[in-house]
Amino acid sequence: MSSRVTGVVLCLGQIVEALGGELLGPPDLPISRIASLESAGPEDLSFLSHPRYQQQLGVTRAACVIVAPEFRAQAQARGACIVTDQPYLYFARLTRFWKQARQSGQGPAIHPSAVIDPTAEIHPGARIGALCVIERGARIGDGTLLYSRVTVGEGCSLGERCIVHPGVVIGADGFGFAPVEGRWEKIEQLGAVRIGDDVEIGANTCIDRGALEDTVIGNGVKLDNLIQIGHNVRIGEHTALAGCVGVAGSATIGAHCTVGGGAVVLGHLTLADHVHISAASVVMRSLLKPGQYTGVFPIDDNRQWEKNAATLKQLHGLRERIKVLEQATDPNKTNNTKPER
Predict the structure, then answer these.
(1) 108 located within any domain
(2) Which terminus in the chain has less CB density within 10 A, N or C?
(3) pTM of the predicted protein model
(4) Does 278 score more than 50 pLDDT?
């Protein structure tokens, strides 16, 4: 980790008072930045999240390091430290606390360039960024932050403490058309989008409104950048989707699932709770048992890949030939193969 967070100065005592942990060091020690162990300087706060980085603990220049109890002595020998059972979780909460301190008192709650329909309901505790558009009947909950250029369509709602990054579109029409005599007749999308509490949505992600019923995103869901959520999709609580995932219309994804970057879930399928999809997989059937699923054809040099692809095309024929050979060698063998669907 080489990133850094700057722009505010806090004392160690303020941090521990807000977040807990055991402080071993002066509470008035000023901290001006959060940084990695490798890049930290004498006014920085860092953390040790995994034992494999413990060699950096002895050489870091950080003013203070967040560590687990087993590294208490080693950390205290080099200077100030905050001891906590889960350093990485403490770091996560520290970043939020730091950002709140940095943003306190910044600008109006609703940017003057935002366009908000008079019938929209914006909680006084929400913040609306520049060039956002909030359409008729939309509702934005307490503590929710919309960054610049977010669009919330008619009748759509966001719960409390959501974070919506730039360029997100919530409530565009779902992809609904009826074929008629070689052309397409539009099906109006009459549902909306309902988003729960503590949801985060990455930049330029699109969540389509439902055709009749609403598209529903549960509490605690995390969506990365450039994700497409089709109409009438339902995503359960605390599920996370990585960048460029596509979820087709009317798919249902359970709670506590993960979907890796670039994966696709086809329409009208169901994923049970605690299903985990590897990156770049294509989910073509419902997955009703928890577990890790992968559907990626391994990369290879092009010549070898073409040979394997050609073999794959022959798999069905080879299967049938094997069945014939099995029956020829054992006439009493029962064919238990399921019928083709």
Answers:
(1) no
(2) C
(3) 0.88
(4) yes
Is residue 109 one of the residues assigned to a domain?
no
Give the pLDDT confidence score for residue 108 in this predicted structure: 80
pLDDT tens-digit map of 166-186: 999 999 999 999 999 999 999
The CATH number for 272's domain is: 2.160.10.10
Cα gap 20→62, rounded to integer Å? 20
- DSSP string covering 242-258, please? -TT-EE-TT-EE-TT-E
Instruction: Give me the catalytic one of 111, 231, 274, 276.
Output: 231
Q: What is the DSSP string of 67-85?
A: E-GGGHHHHHHHSEEEE-S
In the residue annotation, 231 being an active-site residue is answered as yes
Q: Is the pLDDT of residue 163 over 90?
A: yes
SS3 240: strand
- Which of 117-131, 207-221, 306-320 is the least confident region? 306-320
Instruction: Give the range of the structural domain holding residue 41, as residue numbers without chain letter.
Output: 4-103
Task: Answer with the one of 65, 81, 103 that is the final residue of a domain.
Answer: 103
Cα-Cα-Cα-Cα dihedral sign, residues 125, 126, 131, 134: negative
Give how far Cα 252 sits from Cα of 9, 236, 266, 275, Å: 45, 8, 10, 12
Q: Tell me the backbone φ, ψ of residue 35, rounded to 5 degrees.
A: -145, 170
CA distances from 324 to 10, 164, 303, 338, 339 (A): 76, 58, 32, 15, 16
DSSP 53: G
Query: Which structure tokens are listed for 268?
Result: 């009208």
Mean pLDDT of all residues in 55-78: 96
Asked if residue 120 and residue 211 are part of one domain, the reply reads: yes
Residues 169 and 262 placed together within one structural domain of the fold: yes
